[in-house]
């Protein structure tokens, strides 16, 4: 009997040795707010229903592959909220002291989630909302941001304009809240990088542009002072697509259409990105978008912290994510890390049109005393975030 | 006597060794004649050729045609593809076992290392490794093969007897290349995004040293070690630092960087000439090869090749 027990113990030890039995469990919860598609003039590019989610799932696969060699077991619990569902229903579903939350949801949801986790050592990630305020005075104590801020995107375009010496801009601002937020961010970037805004107009049309763009847009842009680039803010991709090639003056269009700025684009191929694009496409049967990338990056950041600390303790992971040791390879040619003052992930920003990448910001020559990536978005002296540091 | 013979060989016009370079975005190989420092032949390959190595007697050439999902076996005399080996999907790099028979191939898209018998053309093993395997090495005694995986950030130690992993070592972000020292006592692994080379003791897989790089005027995030080679005399290791456009010269005993040599843009991999007095580096973005004179540690020439040169291999022509 004793011998049998010993034999069993040996067999179990052998099994443990060869199968790398899981001894560390890491729970991640992905919260996704379904959104009604905003009505747009064209339905050419519907927002995928699984936007973000597939990025998270790919991140999980990547983590699990690493985890199996180390005995780390990752689980991804997905919670989907319908457009009208009360956010407070999350409270009973999430134990913030046991799971890391990655949220793909609008700003009001993020604020509510942050408050729910206030009494736990919660580690939260925002993978979708770009509002500058979340990185500024309205920042949240326990929330990292893997989605780039508007400021990072608009700074990237301003750097590009400066580098190209296309420094006289005109701007068309859409009517939606996000269009205006983006425009406000552009105005800040314009000041920061010495661009001249020579004309600015609000988009007020309510007709169907598919029929009249060729008549209306030339007139609408005819009185713009001489400019070198026309910037359009249209967060829902409603009207901007009709501006291109219909302007009075032959000028490149940028912003929400034409030369776009984003955390990710289908045309990113350098830095081994083809591998990530291929793995994503195989899983999603579509191209990877910014929210997919931000969701992937959040889950990979968690994985990297677990791998290096060999821990699933939330406080340990948070400290590591904010330490100088943390670095994530994100297929954008530079190591990604988190800003200690507001939890924003430092990352290069892609400037691309539909068919190719044009540049990657920060552009050459934009220097910084610590990290060139901090020339994009709210640098420490620019950010009024205090809540994140206090935590 | 030996010296005379060597001298005679060196002076002989027939002694025109070659450097073979894969051009990733041209689907070709450029053959550089060392004597004349010119490209004498351009050989067509499958899609996206990357890893390149000759058999031990230089009678055949193996090329990873990544996007054709094949390892091509090419006759170096004629440049014709003799046959293809089953390689698994998206082969990026490989290493030929000292037995001259087994190719260990990294399948980048599939998180697998494939072992192919070059004689029977059969896959003899597929080993699950981390995400995006790339760097491949085999110990001089042939007992251990290494795969490094870029996204998993590990070196996987494979027992070549039973083709299974017996250890995993974490390295810094995005490992790209692995080499054993000539005596087999150390394994070196470069980490592109981490910006380091990790040195391990082969005997117990413990980490022995970490090499860091610093170039005045270049931000450390742009110093990205990728390919590297160690000289046979144990005097130098040459490390390609990617987009910084420099090659680092490292002392392999003290692990100190001795010098940095400016080469072309986005330097990837490299190959020595026969007596290791010259080093040829592939410069991806500038589409050329830099020639470094090793005694003086200076870049002495640039040779235009195809688009995005990646791998390099030396071929003696006797």
From TrEMBL, chain A:
Residues that span the membrane, as ranges: none
InterPro entries (alphabetical): ABC_transptr_sub-bd_PQQ, BCAA_transport, Peripla_BP_I
Keywords (A to Z) from UniProt: Amino-acid transport, Signal, Transport
Highest taxon of source: Bacteria
Signal peptide span: 1-21
CDD domains per record: PBP1_ABC_transporter_LIVBP-like
Protein name as annotated: Branched-chain amino acid ABC transporter substrate-binding protein
TrEMBL record, chain B:
UniProt KW keywords: Signal
Acyltransferase in keyword set: no
Nucleotide-binding as UniProt keyword: no
Boundaries of every YNCE-like beta-propeller domain copy: 9-106
Span of the signal peptide: 1-16
InterPro entries xrefs: Host-pathogen_enzymatic-act, N2O_reductase_N, PQQ_b_propeller, WD40/YVTN_repeat-like_dom_sf, YNCE-like_beta-prop, YVTN_b-propeller_repeat
NCBIfam families found in the cross-reference section: beta_rpt_yvtn (TIGR02276), PQQ_ABC_repeats (TIGR03866)
Protein's UniProt name: Membrane protein
């Amino acid at each position: 009997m004793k011998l049998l027990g010993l034999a069993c113990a040996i067999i179990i030890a052998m099994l443990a040795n060869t199968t790398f039995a899981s001894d560390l469990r890491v729970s991640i919860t992905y919260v996704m707010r379904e959104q009604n598609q905003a009505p747009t003039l064209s339905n050419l590019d519907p927002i995928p229903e699984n936007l973000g989610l597939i990025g998270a799932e790919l991140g999980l696969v990547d983590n699990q592959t690493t985890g199996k060699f180390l005995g780390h077991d990752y689980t991804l619990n997905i919670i989907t909220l319908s457009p009208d569902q009360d956010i407070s229903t999350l409270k009973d579903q999430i134990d913030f002291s046991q799971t890391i939350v990655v949220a793909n949801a609008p700003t009001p949801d993020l604020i509510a989630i942050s408050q729910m986790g206030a009494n736990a050592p919660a580690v939260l990630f925002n993978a979708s909302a770009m509002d500058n305020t979340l990185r500024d005075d309205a920042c949240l104590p326990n929330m990292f941001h893997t989605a780039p801020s508007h400021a990072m995107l608009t700074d990237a375009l301003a750097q590009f304009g400066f580098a190209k010496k296309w420094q006289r801009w005109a701007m068309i601002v859409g009517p939606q809240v996000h269009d205006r937020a983006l425009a406000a961010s552009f105005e800040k970037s314009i000041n920061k990088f010495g661009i001249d805004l020579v004309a600015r107009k609000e988009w007020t049309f309510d007709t169907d542009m598919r029929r009249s763009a060729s008549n209306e847009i030339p007139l609408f842009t005819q009185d713009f002072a001489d400019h070198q680039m026309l910037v359009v803010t249209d967060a829902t991709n409603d009207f901007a697509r009709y501006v291109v090639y219909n302007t009075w003056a032959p000028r490149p269009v940028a912003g929400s259409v034409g030369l776009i700025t984003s955390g990710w684009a289908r045309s990113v191929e350098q830095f081994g990105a083809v591998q990530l694009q291929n793995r994503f496409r195989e899983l999603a049967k579509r191209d990877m978008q910014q929210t997919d990338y931000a969701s992937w990056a959040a889950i990979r950041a968690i994985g990297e912290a677990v791998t290096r600390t060999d821990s699933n303790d939330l406080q340990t992971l948070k400290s590591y994510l904010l330490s100088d040791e943390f670095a994530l390879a994100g297929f954008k040619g530079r190591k990604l890390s988190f800003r200690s003052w507001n939890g924003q992930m430092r990352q290069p920003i892609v400037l691309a049109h539909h068919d190719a990448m044009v540049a990657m910001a920060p552009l050459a020559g934009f220097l910084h005393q610590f990290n060139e990536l901090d020339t994009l978005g709210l640098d420490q002296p620019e950010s009024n975030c205090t809540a994140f540091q206090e935590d | 006597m030996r010296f005379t013979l060597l001298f005679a060989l060196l002076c002989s016009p027939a002694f025109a060794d070659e450097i073979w370079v894969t051009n990733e975005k041209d689907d070709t190989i450029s053959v550089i004649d060392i004597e004349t420092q010119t490209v004498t032949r351009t050989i067509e390959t499958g899609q996206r050729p990357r890893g390149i190595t000759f058999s031990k007697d230089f009678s055949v050439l193996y090329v990873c045609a990544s996007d054709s999902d094949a390892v091509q076996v090419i006759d170096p005399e004629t440049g014709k593809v003799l046959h293809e080996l089953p390689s698994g999907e998206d082969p990026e790099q490989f290493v030929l076992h000292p037995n001259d028979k087994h190719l260990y191939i990294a399948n980048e898209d599939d998180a697998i290392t494939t072992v192919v018998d070059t004689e029977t053309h059969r896959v003899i093993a597929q080993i699950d490794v981390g995400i995006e395997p790339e760097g491949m090495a085999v110990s001089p005694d042939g007992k251990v093969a290494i795969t490094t995986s870029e996204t998993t950030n590990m070196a996987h130690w494979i027992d070549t007897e039973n083709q299974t992993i017996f250890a995993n070592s974490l390295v810094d972000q995005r490992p790209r290349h692995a080499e054993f020292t000539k005596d087999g006592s150390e394994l070196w692994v470069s980490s592109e995004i981490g910006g380091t080379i990790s040195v391990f003791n082969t005997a117990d897989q413990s980490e022995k040293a970490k090499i860091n790089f610093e170039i005045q005027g270049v931000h450390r995030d742009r110093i990205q070690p990728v390919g590297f080679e160690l000289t046979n005399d144990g005097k130098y290791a040459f490390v390609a630092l990617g987009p910084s456009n420099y090659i680092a010269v490292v002392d392999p005993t003290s692990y100190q960087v001795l010098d940095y040599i400016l080469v072309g843009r986005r330097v990837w991999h490299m190959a020595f000439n026969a007596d290791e007095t010259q080093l040829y580096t592939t410069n991806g973005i500038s589409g050329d090869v830099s020639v470094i004179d090793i005694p003086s540690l200076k870049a002495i020439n640039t040779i235009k090749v195809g688009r995005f040169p990646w791998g390099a291999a030396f071929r003696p022509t006797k």
